[in-house]
Model the fold of this input.
Amino acid sequence: MSTALGKTGEVPVNGASPEKERWTPLIVAFCCNWCSYAGGDLAGTSRMDYPANVKVIRMPCSSRINPLFILRAFQRGADGVLVAGCHPGDCHYTSGNYYVRRNLSLFRRLLEFSGIEPERFQVSWISASEGDKFAGVMQSLTEEIKALGPNGKWRDSRWQSVE
Amino acid sequence: MTKYITSERLPELWARLADRGPLYLPVNEGTAVAFRAWEEGKEVNLEAVNSTVSPKEIFLPAWETYLKFERAGKKLALAPADANGLARPVTAFGLRPCDLRAIELLDLVFVEQDPPDELYTRRRKNTTIVALACSQPDPFCFCTAFGIEPTDAPGADVLAWKTGNRLFMEARTPRGEDWLEENSRLLQEAEGVEKPPPVESADFGLALEGLPENLKGRFEDPIWDQIYRSCLGCGICTYICPTCYCFDIQDYGHQEQGERFRCWDSCQFSHYTLTAGGNNPRPTRKERVRNRFLHKLQFYPERYEEFGCVGCGRCLRSCPVGIDMVSVIRALGGETVAR
Amino acid sequence: MAERRINNMEKIRTAVAQDLLSGRIDLLLGWEKGLYWWQSRPLFARNSEDLQRLTWDSFCVANLSGYLQEELKENKKIGILLKGCDSRALNRLVQDQMVDRERVVAYGLPCPGLLDPRLLKQEAGLELTALGIEEGEDRVTLTGTKGKSIAREELLLEKCRRCHHPDPVGCDQLLLPPVGSREDRSRFHQVTRLEEIPAEERFAYWSSQFERCLRCYACREACPCCSCRECFVEQEEPRWLGKAHENSENFIYHLTRAFHSAGRCVECGECQRVCPVELPLMELSSKIIKDINELYGEYQAGLDTEQDPPLLTYQPDDPAAFVE
Done:
């Protein structure tokens, strides 16, 4: 898949090279429909810049996240995964994000235990009015993952990026 | 032709053989032992009887891609995948006589059919098998019950056995002679006629004669209700078994491109017999356990005039709940003396 | 000592025989001897003849609680022999409403820790067939080795070395005197060791372990807490897991299996005990338990059925393991 910033998911040559400069990570962001997704919309309609290599997937609630979504994303090409939901206390369904906070905290530590850099999996609370936070999170996440380089860990050896 | 090599020089032999093509032999993996392609640093274990997982993997890998496909417009391009062990000559070293017999049983299914299974047959033709005679059977071994001699492996290209510090190797086929010849720089001529010292495994008092006939008409025997009860429904027995050969074929990829692979499957899994529409002719663990044992003890003999078990003892050691070949044969009445 | 063991056996048999033969229970789940003296296996006893085979020894390793769900479909009331870990599994299943506690009679067997045949063989330097054992209070004597005697603790199965609760919890009756809790044992030393090594090494470690996985699913089948009617492994729509033994698929399987038991794992160690290629699977579950304790307070599944499982509850001011 090509984006304005170059090809995603391709493994660049090691060291500082033009290829590495051009490489942009593939980031999958699972966003809650009621807050973070709307925050993304706001960032868009406000013409705020955020990297186009972030693939946003709309969820009914951050607690809809199944850890298998995250594992599958890493297996099929993601260099980083983000889950974004409503701020604690603001869940559209009252308490979904409280449950998912426990769930994903444990899961993040388990991922780290398996050898994945914890920076590759992040969780953020972004409300519908925080377009600037949405753009900022996406930008800083992209920078962080870019510094780490491509993720080959737990990637399916048969997986190929789709041109 | 008989030659020998001393234990200290074995690493040289491994390196030389691995240079020529993949060399599979038993190596330690933690406390388990499995047949792996040799490389520097692997800890070879020629003492283990028997390896935790059987060497059938050499000929029937746990999974392998054999076909790649890609769509270009309205055309579908197909290409066979490069599979390991198909092109270069392979050496399989250290297979025990029971394992070798098991491979001969697999040959009945994969090679002596029309058409033969191409992947299996090519691997089989590519591979020189050096069997290793047993000097100390494990408490779980019962190959003797199936008429296997722990110190002989009639189907091997080369038979090896250990005496003290020496590993003797005797060629049994022309290919075995060539193999010994190729490696003669590292081997020494054996003086006089050497033979592996005879040993015998336990046979647990099994009486197998007439068992297949005896099992006819016992499909609905209430004994199966007892045998299966504690079965967990895992696939350990089928995956460590040297004669279980079931596989599945699946695709990986998406609409535009992908690959087709085959992988082990187990008759102990509910999905093994699940058909489209949701019908399952073996709906519970009872039918699945019954199938596994009847396959080895009745269907195989009916079809090929050979038992589908070689008494390697792996299921006796690894079944977490003690449903193993010996216990089941006993429960079915295949014993010389009633206990 | 041998005499006491025989007395114990009679005590157990008498207690369960009363209930089985009077019809209070239809089935007794216990153990019987397997092929060799170092093997015991599950026994499904229905009559006095079956009860003659009933055994309680240092090799009765299988956790029988996992059979209840299936057997309760066919039996009205089931009696079950439970070690400490097994009893916690029953309690956890009851808490999840997977088993109706009213239909179970739980007989508790305080457990001195079970012996690892591999260690016996290693210590004796002999094939187990040439060996026997005599069990004392804290020591085990290997007969056939000129009477070598070893502390029992050193011969225990890996899973038993970490056990804090050898005495069954919440049983209808205890058939033997309690052995006392063992909170002096370390549960997380392996996890801590792995946490401390660099991420790259940890990745290499788990890669080399998962690579060996046969995907026989014995860890799942033996787990008394894996009680889903349909596992994600078999789900077709969506297909979560491919059948190739590709390492990323193995990784997804093992991480998901362990994570699905978060807040459920009773540390019976059956997953690791049954693994034919001996993957260190307890470390995954132990890691999750350790993190639950650190982040959300001490929780040991199946000890107190009134306590909410940590993933089924929350506090508004919970900490998070990520930058919020």
About this structure: Chain A has a mean pLDDT of 89.
